[in-house]
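Lab meeting notes turned into a lecture example. A postdoc, R.K., suggested we walk through two folding results consecutively so the class can see how the record format repeats. The first protein's sequence and structure tokens come next.
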Amino acid sequence: MQKNLLIAFLFLHLFTGARSQDSTAHRLGVSMGFHYGFLVAHRPLIIPLQQDKISGLEANFIIRPDGSKNWHNTYGYPEIGISLTAWDLGNRNQLGKAVTLIPYLDFPLARGRKTSLELKFGWGLGYVEKVFEADENYKNVAIGSHINYGLVLQPRIKTRITEHLVFKGGLSISHFSNGSIATPNLGLNLMTITGGFIYNIGEKQLPRKKIVATFEKSRRLTFFGAASLKQVYPADGKNFYAVSVSGNQSWQISPKSAFGFGGDIFYDSSIHQKLEERNLELKSSIEVFRGGFHGSYELVIDDLSVIINMGGYLYTKLKNDGSIYHRIGMRYRFSEKLFVLMHLKSHWGKADFVEWGVGCRFDKIKSK
């Protein structure tokens, strides 16, 4: 999942912002599409789960921005939508069916008169019918919970057929995993070709006229606290809880990007069990804490931000995870100073836990 997210962020930062030659647009639309492909064996343990081809039916509701906010122009007027997809995972006995409900943004990479190249990116919820069970479904080593996080990444081409009808087609990468809330959690990666049609509702409208504000570089200080539940192997085991406290100093250098650094303190109650499994004695309660230092990147989309951190532990009693950790996720600012967040903390792609929390930020404008 982290690799897919990083690819998406790279495209969003470097290539978004294409402008349409047509200044008018239909504000609403609906679409239907299909998926056909295969389950990716990203680990050897996934190979036995590959049986038949994967298929899916996707429905979308689309809202197009009216130009009333600065980020609409910065990112080339991306479409905003919600996608509902029903999946046949190609393995009736171990995986069954699946459903995803995913809010998304569809960013333009290049636009012509009738044809455009776009990147659809969304992160939401996924339901998998059949999950790991020690007695009856022990071969499903990919998913340990019915409710999961769902991710979609779709580079695709759109071609206008008529004023209201548009063809769309391309590739799709879809991902299911639960962020170690339950084990096993190797995850499911679906690679499919996709196609379908969009129907634009109503008449075209001119975008609202808005004076684009001059970008002002800023410096900001952020703090947050977060909590999580997690499981560790062996599969279907005990639930543990984790807590994170973090601070960060960053500089927003463009309408899209901010860079910074900060520190983290983690409390993870599963460390006690992991130390016992390795015949290591827990001498003090402080040894279930970890402390680290990170560098950060923030992709800013109005009040929504996408966060990438790469950090190193300055103190950890448990060594088997290595000395490097990562954080990737989203934050939404609901007031001038307060935001909510969802982050995935991991060690080189291996999920540690998902952070759910709230934070505050203090901005200081530097220069225009």
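The second example is placed directly after the first for contrast:
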Amino acid sequence: MQTSGSLRSGGNPKRGGRATPARMALMLIALVVGGCQTFNVRSDWDDTVRFEELRRFHFEAPPTVEGANPFADNTLMRKRIRTAVEAVLGERGFRPAASRARADFVITYQVLLEEELRVDSTGVDIGAGGWRRPYGYGVFGSTTTRVNNFQEATLILDVLDPEKNELTWRGWGQRMLSTKDRDRSEERLREGVRAILDRFPPGRE
């Protein structure tokens, strides 16, 4: 996990730099925000390709597959991904080509979903009894276990040679797409796409 800065423990030296409740709250918020921006990005590429010569791109959506998972492929997601990819490539100085034939490279994508199980256990201690008893209060414990099923999404961006249709570069990352309702942040998706394309062309990272 990377953050743009570090938190310093200030305060009165006489107190030994003890963290105040307010400072502890800020540190917790920073950890949560930093964790939300971890996309676990990776990339791979063909060393023989002269990526420095690439200037214009052509976006192609993947073909529609009958029976595909509707969370992995739908018209809303296709529009969001295309908008994010074109915007980030524009930030990088690339320009869209009028057609595949006029492009230096083609960019497309895939979305993979993997079923995951998350087990959460919560323990509760309940005190009972009174101080007059020889051993003080009695404590009884109870544990509640919840099993949540969710889908971990991986976004894959592929760069292809427009003539040979061969894969020349691939980048992928997780945690930028969600199958949960009301958790489809376009800004988060763009940040994830930006994190992947930070590695394109090779040598940028």
